[in-house]
Amino acid sequence: MKKKLMLLAAFSLAVSAMVGCSSDKAEPKEEKEKPVVEETEKKEPAVEEKVEKDETTVEEVQAEVEKVINDNLKFAEEEDIDAYMGTLSKEYSGNAEVTASTQVLFDAYDIDYEVIDVKVVESSEEQVTVEVKQKAIATKVEEGYTFQNHIATAVHTLVKEDGQFKFSVTETLEDSIEYLDEEGNPIAVPVEESTEESTQE
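Structure (tokenized):
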């Protein structure tokens, strides 16, 4: 069940430049060399401008995605159901069942989140895939529920809707999960016990 609360949220940009070649017709050297030099000088700034523009775009998308991730966790900590659902794609934000089950989780747990690392692994104008490593420490667990503090990495796919990135798909990397005690120190948790707890939830 807690995987739903772990909804948070690279770049592979390539810049290529093609420089035309002049023909090999016999022409006086002085008249031929001058246009070639001028053409090269005109093209080089254009390539530099393209690279600079792409780098700016990467930084802007990175910042936008990190803001969505931080907002998602902030709203989860504050248990602001409307704001939290607003960080999810329409497939989930408009789903009454998902909203109700998320509210149940908010009522059952108080959890402090900490983002440890964010890595954008794939990006386009309309979709971003990002790996987020985060820590989750429960400060309150209602009777009848269980929660194991942990550090884990999740892969999130965010899609752009109405000009903003929203969480669409989340997959927790099981091999990345590191269980913690109440003080946040690493502990060993048997696979059987972990599976049992997930089943009870």
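The chain has one domain: 2-12+54-200. Helices lie at 29-78, 81-85, 90-93, 96-108, 191-200.
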